[in-house]
Amino acid sequence: MRHLWVIVLAGCYSTVAIRPTEIPKVNQMDESYGTGAVYSPTSNPSISIGTVQTGESHIDFVAPDGSVSNVPGYADLFVTTRQRTYRFRQIVKVEDEGDRFMIRSSSRTGEVPKGDIVATELRQLNKVETALAVAGAALALTAPLVLLLVAR
To answer: What is residue 51's predicted lDDT score, i.e. its pLDDT?
Structure first.
């Protein structure tokens, strides 16, 4: 059963390949939060005041093939060099230091020489696909049990 959840959640990411020269644009990524009404659809539905997302950036990134992709909010940055791939978890800040990038994130900090970069990607959790996949997996797991109980 655990393997089903891993498979469901693994495929729920959106990935956008970007040119290495686009890396500094991640500094413009933003999400804002404020106070607002929160609806809780439980057995006893209620509305309360809480923290809600009020906005997010929409940044255009150029892919290696020249196409443009618009990326909303924050994303994790994956930088592939000749030696390995580095994951910088959101929120990512980049400083262009001439021949290298100084990249800081919540998961790691490091200098990456520009000449060593062979690929770069932005990856973010797709909230809608994840919710649908989890709901589908839950239905797939519970449906046989319900049918078994009803058949008795």
So the answer is: 79
Tell me the one-letter amino acid at 47: I
Q: What are phi and psi of 60, to 5 degrees?
A: -85, 125
Give the whole-angstrom CA distance, residue 78 versus residue 3: 25
The yes-or-no verdict on residue 10 having pLDDT over 60 is no
Ordered by start, the domain boundaries in the chain are 2-140
Scan for tokens 């449906």, then name that residue. 143
Task: Tell me the β-bridge partners of 62.
Answer: 68
Q: What average pLDDT score do residues 10-16 get?
A: 77
Q: What is the DSSP letter of 76?
A: E
Mean of the pLDDT values across residues 59-63? 94
